[in-house]
Specification:
There is one protein chain. With 351 residues, this protein is an alpha+beta fold. It is 72% helix and 10% strand. The protein contains 11 helices and 5 strands. A 5-stranded mixed sheet has the order 1-2-3-5-4, covered by helices on one side. Strand 4 and strand 5 form a beta hairpin. The radius of gyration is 39 Å and the shape is rod-shaped. The two termini are 49 Å apart. The N terminus is likely disordered.
Length: 351
């Protein structure tokens, strides 16, 4: 720290010296010229005795003394100019870079701000911190990608086991109940068996709905649009919230990972509508434009106050929104969130 301060002092005072020196020389010239002009004028208009009295050194010193005050004034002005140019403006620029860094912009902090050595060293430390944060985020993104991949594989495994084992067992149970209905004559027994048959049928339907949520078969076989349309219908039937589905443009198949991420984001957004928004209706819209695809979920619910920074999502308990953001980043998509208390919520992801 002492070494840096000495570097700053040498360069700073050197700059001040070269700024103040010309001004000081000019002021000295003004003082000497004023004295010479004073003596010249006094010699023309005064007698010899009066001229000697008027050019007394003490009297002339009182005449030029106010001019000497211009030297510290010049020094103060030069110091103010130096402080504004080398300290204040670089600090303001560094403040903007710190704000941009807090918002996730790692490129803006690379721009040099200049200023004194201490500010430049501070920027270098900020750049190094940004590099470490960016590296940590990339590592975290890879980790989240691995977790998401593992989660999808686990969902497929569970869906397969539920379909191959649990549902098949329930179907067999239902068939046995139907066979028992043909042999039972007692009305009370028939009633109990019919109730058991209805319960088995309802359980089978619930499991199929769960399997479709775990593994969107429509997405794999028929594509994103059909899968989103079926998702909207199922959410509407199970929740009672009116879901309007719309497809704009010519549908085309996308990369399987992209389709899966868009489907999961729509699924999470609709779940948030059901659990938190208290909405009466929502819109699910997918748009195909040239090489771009946009997915949008909008509701007329209660809305909420958006966090000021992405890092605040977890602190405020918005883990669903944080998950959607992380999924969007995995495929290079851009996620936009719009909400305000009493004005609903709009989620839009584009790639």
């Amino acid at each position: 720290m002492n070494r840096r301060f000495n570097v700053f002092s040498a360069s700073g005072f050197q700059a001040l010296f070269w700024m103040v020196l010309p001004i000081t020389l000019v002021l000295i010239g003004v003082v000497v010229g004023s004295l010479a002009l004073h003596e010249h004028v006094m010699r023309q208009y005064l007698t010899e005795e009066a001229w000697k009295a008027a050019t007394d050194p003490l009297l002339e010193l009182t005449l030029v003394a106010p001019l000497v005050l211009l030297i510290p004034l010049a020094v103060a002005g030069a110091a103010f100019w130096f402080g504004t140019r080398q300290i204040i403006r670089p600090l303001q620029a560094l403040e903007k870079q710190a704000v941009a860094l807090a918002e996730g912009d790692f490129e803006f902090v690379q721009r040099p701000v200049g200023g004194i050595v201490e500010i430049q060293n501070l920027q270098h430390e900020l750049i190094e911190m940004a590099r470490k944060v960016q590296a940590a985020q990339e590592g975290l993104r890879d980790y989240i990608n691995a977790i998401t991949t593992g989660q999808e594989e686990e969902r497929r495994r569970l869906a397969r086991e539920l379909h191959d084992d649990t549902i098949q067992a329930l179907i067999a149970l239902k068939h046995h109940v139907q066979l028992a209905l043909k042999s039972v004559r007692d009305p009370n027994g028939k009633k109990a068996l019919r109730e058991l048959e209805q319960l088995a049928e309802q359980t089978i339907e619930n499991l199929r709905r769960l399997i479709r949520a775990l593994r969107p078969i429509y997405l794999e076989d028929l594509g994103l649009v059909t899968a989103l349309e079926m998702l909207a219908r199922e959410v509407e039937q199970s929740s009672g919230v009116q879901i309007h589905f719309e497809c704009i443009g010519w549908e085309r198949r996308l990369d399987p990972q992209v389709e899966l991420v868009l489907y999961r984001i729509a699924q999470e957004a609709l779940n948030n509508v059901i659990r938190h928004a208290k909405a009466l209706q929502a819109h699910l819209r997918v748009t195909f434009e040239d090489r771009k695809v946009a997915l949008e979920v909008e509701d007329n619910g209660v809305g909420f106050q958006l966090p000021t920074a992405p890092t605040d999502f977890a602190l405020q308990g918005h883990f669903g929104l944080l998950g959607m953001r992380e999924r969007a980043e995995l495929i290079g998509a851009h996620l936009e969130l719009e909400s305000a208390p009493g004005k609903g919520t709009r989620v839009r992801v584009s790639i």
